[in-house]
TrEMBL record:
<keyword id="KW-0808">Transferase</keyword>
<keyword id="KW-0489">Methyltransferase</keyword>
<dbReference type="GO" id="GO:0008168">
    <property type="term" value="F:methyltransferase activity"/>
</dbReference>
<feature type="domain" description="Methyltransferase FkbM">
    <location>
        <begin position="27"/>
        <end position="133"/>
    </location>
</feature>
<dbReference type="GO" id="GO:0032259">
    <property type="term" value="P:methylation"/>
</dbReference>
<protein>
    <submittedName>
        <fullName>FkbM family methyltransferase</fullName>
    </submittedName>
</protein>
<dbReference type="InterPro" id="IPR029063">
    <property type="entry name" value="SAM-dependent_MTases_sf"/>
</dbReference>
<dbReference type="InterPro" id="IPR006342">
    <property type="entry name" value="FkbM_mtfrase"/>
</dbReference>
<dbReference type="Pfam" id="PF05050">
    <property type="entry name" value="Methyltransf_21"/>
</dbReference>
Amino acid sequence: MLAYLLPEIDSDRTGLCIDVGVGTFAFYCEIFAKLGFPTIAVEPLPVNKLRKLSQQYGITLIESCLSDQDGIQSLYLGSFAGLFNHNFNSLAADWFGSSRNFKPVSVLSLPTFIENIKAQKITILKLDIEGWEGCDL
């Protein structure tokens, strides 16, 4: 569906496609880049596959989280069924997938992020930010 919709929305493919909260397997940033869009991936703890895809397809990888502030916050490492799982990492300590283990990570507010990437046009902003979607970005 994205392969049809995005070129309809932005036929000259000049707008940024941004994948926030990439995770470990659903690489929307790869789809965006393969469609010929300038692409940014935002993931605080990127897996090697994401690093390789970023190099292969010219995806800008930003190792950070979006938050309601700029600076450093605790990223609570994900846990599901008693096993560590990157896909459940969250800034929310009380999120169902969060464990007690955490790492300090860089965080950016949405206005700071947009300013930093110097976005003139955004075609799509995909957010998957594990329990933090409701914060005032």
